[in-house]
Amino acid sequence: MNLKPRFIDIHVVQPVPYANLNRDDTNSVKSTLYGDVLRTRISSQSWKRAIREHFQDTLGENALRTRRIGERVAEVLHERGWDKALAERAGAHVAAGSSIKWEVAKGKDKQPITNKVLTNALVYLPEDAVEDLADIAEAHKDALTTDFTGKGKNKPESALKGKIDKILIRRNGIINLFGRMLTEVDQATVDGAVQVAHAFTTHTTEVELDYFAAVDDVTEAKGDETGSGHMGTAEFSTGTFYRFATVDLKELIKNLSDDSDIALGAARELVGQFLLSFIESLPQAKKNSTAPHTIPHLVHVAVRSDRPLSFAAAFEEPVRSAGHGGFVGRSVQGIDAYAKAANTLLGPDRVLHASHASLQFDKLEHLGERHASFNALVTAAVDFALAEAPQ
Question: What Pfam families does this protein's entry cite (predicted)?
Fold first, then answer.
C-alpha cells in the first residue's frame, strides 16, 4: 500500500501526588533541567513498559523480552513431561542455536553453569513463539541430549539455526507498534510506529526526603529494647506532568500486512488500545507506599498530515501556580494557547482532526471537539485517522 503520511498525536496533562514513579540507580527521583529550572521526570522507557503491560493485559496478546530464552524453553519442555535435566540441556542448545551471539551463564563463583545459556542481546518475540521453539527441540530431541558447555563438539546443532531464526523473526501487534532491534537475525528488526516522550512536570519541583521507621513487633510487645527495627529515608516529589506520544499510522500499517483490509482492521484495534493504555497506565514504582493512582486531567488527540508535534515547548517557561494554588488549570490553558499558536504558524490545514476530553468544564477553544469519555475520544480519532488513510 502506498499510504499518505498520518500521525496521531496524544497530549496529556496529569497531576500526580506524593510519589516516585521512576527511580534512578540510587533510588532517587529522576529529574531534568528545562527552561533553567528543575523538573521531575519519568523516563519514556518506564512509562512504555507500563503501557505495554496494560496493553497486554487488555488485549491478551503478550510479548516476551529476555536473555534467558533457553530457560523458558526448558520450562515448557518440562511441562510437556520431559525430564528436568534433559529439558535444561535442550533449552541451552536452543538458546545457542540461533544467529544471536551467546554466552554460558556464570554463577556467583564466576564459574560457567552447565546447560544455562544467555543470549547477548535481549530476544523479543511473541510469548506463544516459545511453544514453537520447544517444538523444534522435540523434533531434534536425539541431538540435544548431551550437557551443554559451549565448548568443542558440545556446541549446538547447526541444523537448528535456520529453524530457530524463523521463529525469532515472528512478531505480534505490540512488536509492530513498539518495534524491535535485533540486527543479528535477518529480517528480525522492526521499525517502531510509536514514539513516546519522557514525561516532565510543567513547573519547577523539589524533591522531598521522607524519613521512615519500621517497628519490630516482638520488641514492641516485650518492651525490652528501645528504637525501631529499621530506619531509612526515601525520595519523593509531586507534580503536574505533561506527557506526549505519537503513532505513525503509515509505518504501523506497513508493519502489519500487505493486505490493506487486514492491515487497516488490525491497526484500528492496536492504535485504539495503545491510546487507551497510554491514557490509563501508570508506572508502578513505590505504588504500595504511595498509591498515586490518578487519571489525566486533560487528553488532547490530533490527527496530522505532516509530522508529529509535541507541545513540550509550551512549558519551557515553567507554569506558575494560580493565586489559590495548583498547576493543573494553568497547564491546561498552556496546552490550549500553544495549540492555537503552533497550528496558526504551521497552517491549520495540517491538522485533520482535533478533539479532547477533560475534567475541566471551561471551554477549550483550540483543542477541537469535546468528548465525554476517553473511550469516545479515542474511537473518534481512530475512526477519522483510518478513514483518512487511503491508498
Answer: Cas_CT1975
**Mean pLDDT, rounded, for 54-78:** 93
Determine, yes or no, domain membership for 176.
Answer: no
Place of cell 513463539: 129
> Phi and psi dihedrals of 345, rounded to 5?
-65, -45
Q: C-alpha grid cell for residue 154?
A: 558440545
Whether residue 354 sits in one domain with residue 305: yes
Q: What average pLDDT does this structure show over 227-256? A: 87
Please check whether residues 362 and 249 belong to one and the same domain: yes
Query: What DSSP string describes 15-69?
Result: EEEEE-SSB-TTSPBPEEEETTEEEEEE-HHHHHHHHHHHHHHHH---EEEES-H
As given in the structure block, the three cell numbers for residue 110 are 564466576
Q: Which residues contact 53 (CB under 8 A, 6 or more apart)?
A: 281
Same domain assignment for residues 98 and 127: yes
Closest C-alpha among 249, 245, 369, 374 to residue 312? 245
Which three three-digit cell numbers place residue 277? 493504555
| Residue 118 and residue 250 share a domain | no
Does residue 56 share a domain with residue 145? no
- CA 67 from centre of chain: 18
Nearest one of 275, 274, 205 to 241, comparing CA atoms? 205
Number of structural domains (the chain) is 2
Range from 77-91, 156-170, 257-271 that averages highest in pLDDT: 77-91
Per-residue pLDDT tens over the stretch 151-160: 754 455 556 7
Is 230 inside any structural domain? no
- Write out the residue range of the structural domain in which residue 110 sits: 65-171
CA nearest to 64, candidates 162, 189, 226, 180: 180
| Burial (CB count <10 Å: 0-12, 13-18, 19+), residue 387 | exposed
Residue-wise pLDDT tens digits, 16-31: 998 888 888 778 889 9
